[in-house]
């Protein structure tokens, strides 16, 4: 208990010290770097995952390939990939982004695909039968109905990316990982715990953002608990 | 209106869903496609809006080969209702109904106004407009499905077993509503069902399919019951088609006789003198109260004091069919059916034997009696 309290005090001291809030080594700057890596990776991953997930879910072709690719990608160690790409391509943001994209694509791809494929065949039949084109079926029926799962995929990916973007610090780049990596090498645990706390808070914020998003953009008709009249 | 010319549908795995079908469906009527499962009735229906493309032959709509019309465009002009309604769960009831108008590019306001009209037309309260499909019962969802199909007021409506997923009471309700709607709208309707009773109840014409996608008979319900083309059809329409035919004879055509009818105010004596086992006791408006057994009448007093056996039910000469009359005879303690007018006053009575004369009359007037295949004994059909 004393341990926990003293650690909390450490974090508190670290967070409130004024040097954390100014300059290149401060939290705002590191947070911005972190968010840039995470945001870019998530954007690319969403482009890839959504495109293929929607395409394969809609046409029903290539379902096996999607599952295989996604499982394969899950098996790749993020850290290993960063090291590999840095070795091959030199020190830049690219390897970090590639690694994070590879991490984020599978949950987005799988959930989007499952969401679209899971649309009730009767509903899809009705959509075609009332005269929707393939594109209209996708945009007006399949996507809105798959939205809860698509958002789930994006949320899982976003949280993983935000948490894992700390690896960017290993090859000497910025982001919140700097606090942790630097703290570890200097045996400065105040720095490690403080940095970790910021990462955890950021992940929680992402979670909250997606929960709010779900409430606003998912149709109330898709909520399971809708009351019977 | 809708024409099939030598249409077949074969699948690569060798099954034949529809085999060389030629059929012409009249404008403004309900054609029911009926048959056992795997007979190709749904495939036939789905070839009309190009949800299934035939492997051979031509389907035409108002003289135009439907392959010449872009499929989504064709479908927007044809109402489509399916078994589980297939509503869009993420859209409100109003927006579900507005689907086709919105696809056709109507303004949102105009489409919603049209949808509100349709909601009322199918008998749903306006406050349902803002609900979502999962808040409605199966029967209500099916009504919304019909409303959605009527969205752009299409001349043709395709209905694929629309009422088979709801319970019998709701089904009867939906069928009655459907008949009422059709009287108002005069659409050309193609209706698929596996239920011959539903087919006879709703169809102006019935196409009976047999397994393997062959058309077995295309006829009016009356003719189908009176003169099935072969043993398969006879078996499919069922052993009781003789009784079912009575559905097509108006009760007004039933021969009635005056019978032993006495008012409740009458003294017992004249009733005791009647040469029949039962007398029908009526009130001062000649509305039937019940049957009194002559043998059990009291010695004196009026018929109001006599113990009355319940009527079973009466039949109305204005709305009912001869089938209702026969049922009334079978349920009556006196074995006499009681025919009443619109006010419920007794017109006359008839027993089951007397009632059976109407089918003989129908045979002479309408259908040629011919050789009634399978009229006796099992015909080896589906049932």
Automatic annotation (TrEMBL), chain A:
Describe its membrane topology.
Answer: Multi-pass membrane protein
Chief location: membrane
What are the GO BP annotations of this UniProt entry? glycine betaine transport; transmembrane transport
One cellular component term (GO) for this entry is: plasma membrane
What sequence ranges are listed for the domain ABC transmembrane type-1? 31-210
The record's annotation in SUPFAM superfamilies points to: MetI-like
Q: What top-level branch of life does the organism fall under?
A: Bacteria
Q: Which UniProt keywords apply?
A: Membrane, Transmembrane, Transmembrane helix, Transport
Q: Which Pfam families match?
A: BPD_transp_1
Regions that span the bilayer:
35-56, 76-105, 149-171, 191-213
Q: Where in the cell is it found?
A: Cell membrane; Membrane
PANTHER family in the record: GLYCINE BETAINE/L-PROLINE TRANSPORT SYSTEM PERMEASE PROTEIN PROW, POSSIBLE OSMOPROTECTANT (GLYCINE BETAINE_CARNITINE_CHOLINE_L-PROLINE) TRANSPORT INTEGRAL MEMBRANE PROTEIN ABC TRANSPORTER PROZ
The family annotation for this protein states: Belongs to the binding-protein-dependent transport system permease family.
Q: What is this protein called?
A: ABC transporter permease
Originating species: Streptomyces himalayensis subsp. himalayensis
UniProtKB/TrEMBL annotation, chain B:
Gene3D superfamilies, from UniProt? Answer: P-loop containing nucleotide triphosphate hydrolases
Presence of keyword Phosphoprotein: no
Fetch the Pfam families from UniProt: ABC_tran
User: Which EC numbers characterise this protein's activity in its record?
Assistant: 7.6.2.9
The domain of life is Bacteria
Keywords assigned: ATP-binding, Nucleotide-binding, Transport
Identify the SUPFAM superfamilies for this entry. Answer: P-loop containing nucleoside triphosphate hydrolases
Annotated PROSITE patterns: ABC_TRANSPORTER_1, ABC_TRANSPORTER_2
Q: Which InterPro entries match?
A: AAA+_ATPase, ABC_transporter-like_ATP-bd, ABC_transporter-like_CS, P-loop_NTPase
Domain ABC transporter: where? 2-237
Q: What class of enzyme is it?
A: translocase
Q: Which GO terms describe its molecular function?
A: ABC-type quaternary ammonium compound transporting activity; ATP binding; ATP hydrolysis activity
Hey, which family's this protein in? Belongs to the ABC transporter superfamily.
The name this protein goes by in its record: ABC-type quaternary amine transporter
Task: List the source organism.
Answer: Streptomyces himalayensis subsp. himalayensis
């Amino acid at each position: 208990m004393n341990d926990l309290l003293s650690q909390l005090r450490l974090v508190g001291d670290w967070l409130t010290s004024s040097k954390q809030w100014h300059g290149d080594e401060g939290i705002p700057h590191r947070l911005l770097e972190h968010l840039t890596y995470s945001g870019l990776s998530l954007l690319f991953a969403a482009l890839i995952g959504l495109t293929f997930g929607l395409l394969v879910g809609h046409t029903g072709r290539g379902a096996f390939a999607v599952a295989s690719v996604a499982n394969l990608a899950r098996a790749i160690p993020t850290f290993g990939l960063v090291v590999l790409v840095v070795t091959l391509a030199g020190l830049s943001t690219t390897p970090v982004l590639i690694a994070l994209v590879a991490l984020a694509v599978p949950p987005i791809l799988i959930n989007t695909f499952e969401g679209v494929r899971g649309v009730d065949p009767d509903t899809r039949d009705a959509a075609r039968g009332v005269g929707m084109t393939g594109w209209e079926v996708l945009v007006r029926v399949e996507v809105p109905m798959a939205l809860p799962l698509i958002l789930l995929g994006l949320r899982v990916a976003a949280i993983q990316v935000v948490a894992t973007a700390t690896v960017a610090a290993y090859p000497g780049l910025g982001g919140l990982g700097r606090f942790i990596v630097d703290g570890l090498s200097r045996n400065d645990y105040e720095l490690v715990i403080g940095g970790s706390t910021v990462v955890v808070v950021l992940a929680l914020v992402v979670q909250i953002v997606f929960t709010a998003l779900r409430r606003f953009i998912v149709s109330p008709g898709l909520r399971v608990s809708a009351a019977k009249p | 209106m809708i024409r099939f010319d030598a249409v077949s549908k074969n699948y690569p795995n060798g099954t034949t869903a529809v085999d060389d079908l030629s059929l012409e469906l009249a404008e403004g009527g309900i054609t029911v496609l009926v048959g056992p499962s795997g007979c190709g009735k749904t495939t036939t229906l789905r070839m009309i809006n190009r949800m299934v493309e035939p492997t051979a032959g031509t389907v035409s709509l108002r003289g135009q080969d439907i392959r010449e019309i872009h499929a989504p465009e064709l479908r927007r002009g044809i109402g489509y209702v399916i078994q589980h309604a297939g509503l869009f769960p993420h859209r409100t009831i109003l927006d579900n109904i507005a689907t086709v108008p919105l696809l056709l590019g109507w303004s949102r306001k105009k489409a919603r106004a049209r949808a509100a009209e349709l909601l009322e037309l199918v008998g749903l309260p306006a406050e349902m407009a803002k609900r979502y499909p999962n808040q409605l019962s199966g029967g209500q969802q099916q009504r919304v499905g019909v409303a959605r199909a009527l969205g752009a007021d299409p001349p043709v409506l395709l209905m694929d077993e629309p009422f088979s997923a709801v319970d019998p009471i709701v089904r009867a309700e939906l069928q009655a509503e459907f008949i009422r709607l059709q009287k108002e709208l005069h659409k050309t309707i193609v209706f698929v069902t596996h239920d011959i009773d539903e087919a006879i109840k709703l169809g102006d014409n019935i196409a009976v399919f047999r397994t393997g996608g062959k058309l077995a008979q295309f006829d009016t319900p009356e003719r189908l019951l009176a003169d099935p083309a072969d043993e398969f059809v006879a078996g499919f329409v069922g052993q009781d088609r003789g009784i079912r035919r009575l559905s097509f004879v108006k009760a007004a055509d039933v021969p009635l006789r005056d019978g032993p009818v006495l008012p409740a105010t009458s003294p017992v004596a004249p009733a005791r003198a009647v040469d029949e086992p039962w007398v029908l006791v009526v009130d001062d408006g000649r509305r039937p109260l019940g049957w009194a057994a002559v043998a059990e009448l009291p010695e004196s007093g009026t018929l109001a004091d006599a113990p009355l056996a319940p009527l079973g039910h009466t039949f109305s000469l204005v709305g009912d069919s001869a089938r209702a009359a026969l049922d009334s005879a079978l349920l009556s303690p006196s074995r006499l059916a009681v025919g009443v007018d619109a006010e419920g006053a007794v017109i006359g009575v008839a027993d089951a034997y007397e009632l059976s004369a109407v089918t003989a009359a129908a045979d002479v007037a309408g259908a040629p009696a011919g050789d009634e295949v399978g009229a006796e004994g099992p015909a080896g059909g589906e049932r």
